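User: quick one, fold this
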Amino acid sequence: MRVTVNCLNERFVRRYGLPALLVVAGFVLAACGGSGEAAAPEPTLSPQLVAGRKVFVAHCGACHSPSAETVIVGPPLAGIAAHGAERVDGLDARAYVYSSIMRPSDFVVPGFEDVMPKDLAKKLTGEELDSVVAYVLSLE
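Assistant:
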């Protein structure tokens, strides 16, 4: 005798009622739900930061990590807004990042080689440069 799932559902509903079927379905769905903790939503980025992230991925992300824990080739850029102002006397973090892109050999971070492309600023439009600087300064 071949019994289908629909037949079993009908027998179950007739025998135990619809509320019991809903309880069983709830347990099945809950078992598939994982840890029950919802992931924190990612913050919504402004259009400038979205554009900056695209520039970062295209031109910077192969060598610089946005995470403080990861070193690729160049120094990680997380927290640059906080510690960039301490790198060079007379420059705040924004000016330091602009200068590092426009004249990368001027301020090489100790422990890293001077391998950043010298022509990067020439490859970017003014808007791209502004947006990638804003994006880098937003990294925590």
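User: anything notable?
Assistant: Residues 85 and 93 are 4 Å apart (CA to CA).
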